[in-house]
Amino acid sequence: MDGSKGADGTPRDGNDEMGSNSVEAAGRNGQDAIGPEVFDALRRVSTATITTQLFARGLRNAFMAGLRPLNPAFTRMVGEAFTLRNIPAREDLDVLSVFKDYDHPQRLAVESVGPGQVLVMDCRGQTRAASIGGILATRLLRRGAAGLVTDGAVRDSPFFAQLELPSFAAGVCATTNLARHHAVDLQVPIGCAEVPVYPGDVIVADAEGVVCVPRHLAVEVARDALEQERLEEFIQAEVEGGAPLRGTYPPDENTLRRYRSR
Ligand SMILES: O=C([O-])CC(=O)C(=O)O
Ligand SMILES: [Mg+2]
């Protein structure tokens, strides 16, 4: 990519407070190389901005439409995806006694999510049973998880409304998971709200919802998203001050000059 321009075509200014160099260095070594400054940057930008940055790179299906935060006081979330895939339940297999096995995939998933990771569950959009409940979510919190995401439902939702763990779901349903879901695989590619999620992708959420950033794009999206928001803050102030859209949004050369010399 042209070093002087962001992915949305807007120029970057020089005083990048995240420090582009340190960020790019952090991403060089592949799977284990996303630096904390990248997560910090993604935590500071909106999911809307991130979807624009992904769109500019050809990715149009990254936002998990329809998922809502369960505790409006805890929506900011950034972490690597730890995935759990469910298939439809079968009555003869999915009975209460399966949980006598502490290594049941649903329980194993909860006990495997690492500090800073986000448990992302594929429930095929099926909300007529819970995918997780309050006790398991509490365990995730104690393990240091960054949050949980499901395209199914949760049970114990009044508890989730108080829980200090960012949690996003497509609905609420008191019925236990076994009624609809059979947990099968951990750490495999999944679909969540029709969005592909690969283990290790970077999951970002705010009050609007959840977006999945493919891992290999996390560094540049974080960098360019910060710059997009700086510019948009300026544009917002211009529009609040009475500026018309023409020349302002998107900014023409005049507006950009004033932005750069502010
Ligand atoms: O059966 C479940 O989904 C688990 C549950 O209620 C909980 O974790 O509190
Ligand atoms: Mg419960």
UniProtKB/TrEMBL annotation:
Q: How does it assemble?
A: Homotrimer.
Which EC number(s) does UniProt give? 4.1.1.112, 4.1.3.17
Coiled coil, from the record: none
| Functional summary from the UniProt entry | Catalyzes the aldol cleavage of 4-hydroxy-4-methyl-2-oxoglutarate (HMG) into 2 molecules of pyruvate. Also contains a secondary oxaloacetate (OAA) decarboxylase activity due to the common pyruvate enolate transition state formed following C-C bond cleavage in the retro-aldol and decarboxylation reactions.
Tree of life domain: Bacteria
Catalytic activity annotated for this protein?
oxaloacetate + H(+) = pyruvate + CO2; 4-hydroxy-4-methyl-2-oxoglutarate = 2 pyruvate
Disordered: region residues: 1-31, 242-262
Q: Which Pfam families match?
A: RraA-like
Q: What protein am I looking at?
A: Putative 4-hydroxy-4-methyl-2-oxoglutarate aldolase
- Indicate the family of this protein: Belongs to the class II aldolase/RraA-like family.
Matching entries from InterPro entries are given as: RraA/RraA-like, RraA/RraA-like_sf
What cofactor does this one take? Answer: a divalent metal cation
Main EC class of this protein? lyase
